[in-house]
Design brief:
Ribose 5-phosphate Isomerase B, Chain: A; globular; five-stranded parallel beta sheet; 15% strand
Length: 143
């Protein structure tokens, strides 16, 4: 189960992503549910909290730049949220950082680009090895 959330700037892309990927992935939608202005920290926190508590498998956040949402998510212990702006980053953030969340910049991605980023992230596997040591260091800093 993928938790997905967006602010008003990411709403339209969120809806298109869900429609495009509904036959491959299950989503739990945390809002927003329109283009009316909302406070993105609330949405990002709710998604991140449920990922951290393992109520869902992973999370996707969407706002105009992806930055604000990723900042909020990374304040939650146990979250490694990567700002993904291309397919390679989508793959490497899982392989190297074991990212359990991604944040997408709606203003800078087409639907096809966003979908490809999600596929690469979801299909990638954490490489472990030298990367595991570094992810463990990140976890220690979070404590």
């Amino acid at each position: 189960m993928i938790a997905i959330g967006a602010d008003h700037g990411g709403f339209e892309l969120k809806e298109k992503i869900k429609n495009e990927l509904k036959n491959k992935y299950d989503f739990k939608d945390y809002g927003t549910f329109s283009t009316d202005s909302v406070d993105y920290p609330k949405i990002a926190y709710n998604v991140a909290k449920d990922v951290a508590e393992k109520k869902v498998d992973c999370g996707i956040l969407i706002c105009r730049t992806g930055v604000g949402m990723s900042i909020v998510a990374n304040k939650v212990r146990g979250i490694r949220c990567a700002l993904c702006y291309n397919e390679k980053v989508g793959k490497l953030c899982k392989e190297h950082n074991n990212a359990n969340m991604i944040s997408l910049p709606a203003d800078m991605l087409t639907l096809d680009e966003a979908v490809n980023i999600i596929h690469n992230w979801m299909e990638a596997q954490f490489a472990g090895g030298r990367h595991e040591k570094r992810v463990n260091m990140i976890e220690e800093i979070m404590k």
